[in-house]
Amino acid sequence: MTKGTFGERLKREREMREVSLEEISMATRISNRYLQALESEEWSKLPGGVFARGFVRTIARYLGLDEESLLAEFDLARSKEPPPQPYQTLEPTPQELPRWLPAAVAAVVLVLLLAGVVYGWRRLSARRSTHTAAASAPASTPAPAAAAAAPPVATTSTTTAPALPAEKRPAASVPAEASLDLSVSASAPTRVRIVADGVVLLDGEMRSGDTLHFAANERFEVSAADSSAVLLELNGQAMPPLGTPGSSGTISLSRKDLRPTTRGTTHR
Is residue 95 part of a domain? Predict the structure, then answer.
């Protein structure tokens, strides 16, 4: 697929249905600049990870196109993006050493040798003086033996593990037979709260690139400080954004939000 084919097809399908970018943005809550970047194939303006694919899937669903076919064309077009050029390293230009440098090195070495000779001569003279004084001193009476030293007392140290912050503590347990699986991905740092069947599973910061999974039986309630920084998938199906880009939002998800599939299973 040559550059421009995917973007041209997406634009052509939109214009055939007489739908503007503003209408798609209002219906899907995808920013207008992301829609323009998809049609012009400016991949650098799109968020990383699964967010761009989630946008394509949501647009295909809104226009009535085959989601998997459009995703395949998107992946193929994006894989043709030329790799970044490697940095060129410049080899340093050899510089001529100053003429006085060898003479200075030789002088420093000579000074060090002389200092070593003087230090050795002084040490030898000190040893000779010590031996002479010891030989001329009278023999001294040995002092009584000192009391036996008490054996050392063994000591133990206790290390207390640091307490984990609230957002790092393990989430409340969910029954193993839970039938709803929620995938939460973050494209930028933001605070997220996840409540499953009335139980708080997460209430803390998510970092850019984080992807977390949660399980529930009946319902999820998801809140985020930045709606555009969070992408939700319920049982493998992309869910609509929490709110308008740049603002906080909350959404409730249950089994009724899942679309029926012809094969009886949800795509992951």
Answer: no
